[in-house]
Specification:
Length: 448
């Protein structure tokens, strides 16, 4: 049950408290049918007290246990599987697999309630191998069959046009939707992304599916709405995860504001821009290439270069006047310098493409920010600014902070001369672990 539940609050002596939904379900409880905690925003990536658990939750939300075991997850985190299980029990009261199972069951319930997809398609979209396991998991988690759940809600409130499916992407308020789109709009990839004052639209190439998805604000509030072709139904979990990452929907703006508002420089910006988010990445490789294109040029110049790259090496999307962003394999031997940039920068893009194509973990979630930055700066042509920016957006590192950025140096200047990177870095220490959000606020100051 949630604190906002309209039901009468029982005495504390009659309540049992759990760290997460998975732990409650392991103890035999089902989600309350009045406040519906299974529809609330997911656990923030920074909740809990263990950095390892926080990073594991991010990976699980990204589907890390769909095709691999806890041993593989632990290896990605640099710990033993027994230690990881022990940490989960200590901090969440449930095992990694229990958390993954709860995530899958709750996502399946959303598909049952919000779409008209056949149950077999719901099961496959949610990651169940067969309908028998799907039926058992739903019945165990919600103490009702999938058919009973759908019957209780009736028709979806907003039925989509034939051939499309949509889902609500819940988030915590406040959320500065306008500021988020304002940041993304000048950085939109020509021919791939289309951003208006009210919506985000882009081409998608995932696991054999190519098409267009669209995201806008849900009129009911407290959520965005993802709309995709019905052909993308088997990939809905992946699409939702990527959309949540792009719009930073798992952020806890209250916790972030509580710490940053203590700084007299950031407090006025927080009042002016409540609910600031860090724009993430639909695809880490795509964002990394865009960051390299932006080295030592303006945002407009980098967007122009990106447009030339996409026009020459991107693939057309059949039936649309749009293109798909180039794959790593498309750029391995590409004459990128011919687009109008220094040869060294073009070679850096090819180096990143080669590393991703060869399976090197340069854009995989790291154990910590330092490891993520070290992986990136080990590549020729990537300095601290690019590494921090990529870590901030593509790797969802909430403490990433490109201290050498000219916009941040200007925003923290005490006179006419921009502050030095060393001064900016020193001033940012009290903002940990939310320096990426502080950077977003300071960039807004630079624009105002």
């Amino acid at each position: 049950c949630r604190p906002v539940c309209p039901a009468r609050t029982p005495r504390a002596a009659n309540c049992t408290f759990f760290a997460c939904a998975a732990a409650a379900e392991e103890a035999g409880f089902r989600p309350c049918r009045r406040c519906r905690p299974d529809t609330s925003p997911g656990t923030p990536a920074w909740s809990g007290t263990s950095v390892t658990v926080n990073r594991a939750l991010r990976l699980i939300d990204g589907g890390a246990l769909e095709d691999a075991g806890v041993e593989d997850l632990a290896a990605r985190l640099g710990v033993g599987d027994r230690h990881l299980r022990r940490l989960f029990v200590e901090h969440l009261g449930a095992s990694p697999l229990a958390v993954a199972h709860t995530r899958r069951a709750h996502f399946a319930k959303r598909l049952i309630e919000e779409t008209t997809l056949p149950m077999q398609q719901v099961a496959l979209s949610a990651g169940f191998q067969n309908t028998r396991r799907f039926n058992a998991a739903i019945s165990r988690a919600f103490q009702r069959t999938p058919s009973a759940i759908r019957k209780a809600v009736g028709e979806p409130a907003a039925r989509d046009a034939e051939g499309f499916v949509s889902l609500r992407l819940t988030h915590r308020e406040p959320f500065d939707w306008a500021a988020h789109l304002e940041f993304l709009r000048p950085r939109a990839l020509p021919g791939v992304e289309q951003i208006t004052a009210a919506s985000y639209r882009r081409t998608v190439d995932l696991e054999g599916f190519t098409g267009i998805i669209e995201i806008d604000r849900d009129p009911k509030g407290g959520a965005l709405r993802l709309r995709a072709p019905i052909a993308a139904a088997p990939l809905l979990a992946t699409l939702v995860e990527r959309a949540r990452r792009l719009f930073d929907l798992d952020a806890d703006p209250v916790a972030i504001a509580e710490l940053l508002s203590a700084d007299p420089c950031l407090a006025p910006l927080l009042r002016r821009y409540p609910g600031i988010r860090v724009p993430g990445a639909w695809d880490p490789f795509e964002t990394s290439v865009r960051a390299i294109l932006g080295q030592q040029v303006t945002v407009t110049g980098a967007t122009s270069l990106a447009g030339r790259l996409i026009e020459r090496y991107g693939r057309p999307l059949p039936g649309h006047d749009l293109r798909l962003f180039p794959r790593p394999v498309d750029l391995l031997d590409a004459d990128i310098a011919g687009l109008g940039m220094p040869g060294a920068r073009a070679e850096t893009i090819r180096t990143v493409a080669r590393a991703v194509h060869d399976g090197e973990p340069v854009l995989d979630p790291a154990r910590d920010l330092d490891e993520a930055v070290d992986r990136l700066t080990a590549l020729p042509g990537i300095g601290d600014w690019t590494a921090q920016y990529v870590a901030m957006r593509a790797l969802q590192e909430p403490d990433a902070f490109p201290a050498g950025d000219l916009g941040l140096r200007k925003a923290l200047a005490t006179g006419d001369k921009p502050a030095s990177a060393a001064v900016v870095r020193r001033l940012s220490e009290p903002w940990r672990p939310w320096r990426a959000y502080a950077a977003m606020l300071l960039w807004r100051k630079d624009l105002s």
